[in-house]
Amino acid sequence: MTVDRDDANIALIGREFVEGRIGRREFVRLATLLGMAAPAAYALAGSAMPTPARAAAMPQGGTLRLGTRVKSLKDPATYSWGGYDSNVTRQVCEYLTFTDRNNVTHPYLLEKWQASPDLKTWTLSVRKGVKWHNGQDFTADDALWNLKRLTDPAVGSSFLGLVKDFLLKEVPDGKDAKGKPKTKLVWWDANAIEKIDSHTIRLNGRSAQVAIPEYLFHYPALMLYPGDKGVFGVGAQGTGAFTMTEYQIGKVATVTAVKNYWGGGPHLDAVSFLDMGDNPATAISAMASHQVDGLIFTDPAQYPALKQMPFLAYYEVGSAETAVLRFHVATKPWSDPRVRMAMRLGLDNKAVMEVALRGLGTVGQDCHVAPVQPDYGKVPDVKRDIAGAKKLLAAAGFPKGFTTELAVPSDIAWIVAQCQAAAEQWKEIGVTVKLKVLPGAEYWNVWTKVPFGATIWYHRPLGVMTMNLAYRTGVPWNETGYSNPKLDALLNQAGGILESAKRAVVMQQVEEIMQADGPIAQPLWAKVFTFMDKKVQGFEMHPTNYVFGNMLALAKA
C-alpha cells in the first residue's frame, strides 16, 4: 500500500496531535516514519521545516582537522563506537536513512519507504542516480547484500538486537559442552528480506515495528560496497562525498573529497581526524594552538578552558548519552537481584552527576530510558536508602558487605570521575569498590566480559532501541547477560505501538523492571556539547556526536 496523509495510521497520529496528546516534534517524527515527506509533515504540524545553518555562499576548499580518537575501522558492521569509528567511515559510506538532530528520520540512500497498516511490512525504495566511487550504480542488490550481512549472526553486528523477533527468530541449536540447550538466530521466513526489483526491497516482518527507518540509521548499518567483502580501509568504495586516503590507528585518518558526489559538494578538500589520546589536556592544548579546528567529543573537565577561548563557538543538543555501572548477572554476587538493588540504593544519583559532569547533565533513574526519548514513561527517581541497601545485602548473605573490582576505561574522563564518586558512596553500605582503570584500547576489547564495568552508551532516538541493543536476551551488545522474558515481550509490544501515549505506558513497565531487577546502576544523563573554531561553517551538534563532512566548510582566513 502507499502511505499518504489519508492513511489510517497518519490519521491516527493526526488525531493525537490535534487533541494535544503529542507535540509537533513527535507528530513529525511519526509521520515521516510512516512515509510522509518531511516538508508535508511539518506543514501539517503548522511549523516550518528546520534547515541546517548555511552561509549564503559556502566557501570552497581547505582541510578540516577534528580532534577525536582513531579506532579500528576494519568492519563497520561490528563497530561499537558511534562517534569515533563510524564518524570516519560515514564520510565515505552512507546510510539508507538519516535521523537529524530533532529525532526526525529522512530518506537518504532510500528515496522513500512505505509501511503496511499493521507495521509488519516495509517497502524500501532505493534512490536512483546514486553511484559508487567507481561509477557503478547503487542498487537494491547492494542494499540487500548489506542487510543480509547485518542480519547474519556469524558477523556479530549489534543490528541483530534491533530486528530480533522482527526479521529473526530464535531456534534450537543442539546442546553446549555442559549439555544445556543452545539456540541460534535465523530469518523467521525465507523471504524476510526480499528484492522486488532493481531499486526496491521489502522487509516482511514477523511482528509490528514502527521504528524501522530509525533502525536503518544505527551506525553499524553503513552501506558497504559488496566487492570489498565487508572490509573497510584506505581506498574502500563508498557512495559518500569522500574517500579514505590515510589511516593509522591511534594517530590519524584522512578522507579526501571525490568528484561528482551524487549529493552535491562537498565544500571541503579533506577532513583529517587526529587522535587526541586519553588525556583531556591534550585536546585543550591542540585547540589553543590551532592544531585542530574542533572536537568531536568534549569532556566536562575541558569545558572551563575551552569556554575561555574567544575564537571558539559552543554547540549543544539534548541527548540520551549516559554511562552505566553494569553488573554481569552470571557472576556472583551480581546474580542476586538483591545485591544489584542494594548497589542502586547505595547511590545518590544527583551527587554522582554533579561530581562527574560538573552539573553539565541531568539525574538518571537507573532504567536507561531518557526523558528526552519520546517513548519514555514517567517513573520515580531511585532515592538513596543506606539502611535498605544494608538490609538487602544482609539478606543476600553479605551482612558485612564485600569487596569487588570495577573495570573503568581511562579514555573518557567523566566516566572515571563517575566511578570514583560512586565507589566513595558505596563505602557507606559496606561495599568496597576498587577501580581498575584500563587504557581505552584495552578496556573496549573486554567491555562485554568483565564482571563489573562502566560502559558509555550514546544517544538513541528511542528508548526501545536502547533496550533492544543492550538488554534483550542473547543479543551481541547485551554486556550484562541479562535475560528477562517479560522484558523481551514488552519490547516487542512497544515496538509495534503507533500511539505515543500507549507506547509510553508499555515502556514505563520496562523501566520499572529495570529499576527493580535490572543489571545496572545509571546515575546520570550527560549533556552533549562541543566546541568548533568559528571559521567552521555549517556545523550542527548531533545528539550522537555525528559529523557530516559534506555539510561543512571552512571560512577563508
Helix and strand layout, with pairings?
Elements: H1 8-18, H2 24-33, H3 38-44, E1 63-68, H4 85-89, E2 97-99, E3 105-107, E4 110-115, E5 121-126, H5 140-150, H6 159-163, E6 168-175, E7 181-187, E8 193-197, E9 200-204, H7 212-215, E10 242-248, E11 252-257, E12 270-275, H8 280-288, E13 294-295, H9 303-307, E14 312-327, H10 337-345, H11 349-357, E15 361-363, H12 386-395, E16 402-409, H13 413-426, E17 431-438, H14 440-446, E18 452-457, H15 463-470, H16 485-495, H17 500-517, E19 520-521, E20 524-533, E21 536-537, E22 553-554
Parallel strand pairs: 1-12, 1-13, 16-17
Antiparallel strand pairs: 2-3, 4-5, 5-9, 6-7, 8-9, 10-11, 11-12, 14-18, 14-19, 14-20, 15-20, 21-22
What's this model, at a glance?
By secondary structure, the protein is α+β, with helices and mostly antiparallel strands.
Write out key terms for the chains shown.
557 residues, five-stranded mixed sheet, disordered N terminus, five-stranded antiparallel sheet, alpha+beta, D-Maltodextrin-Binding Protein, domain 2, globular
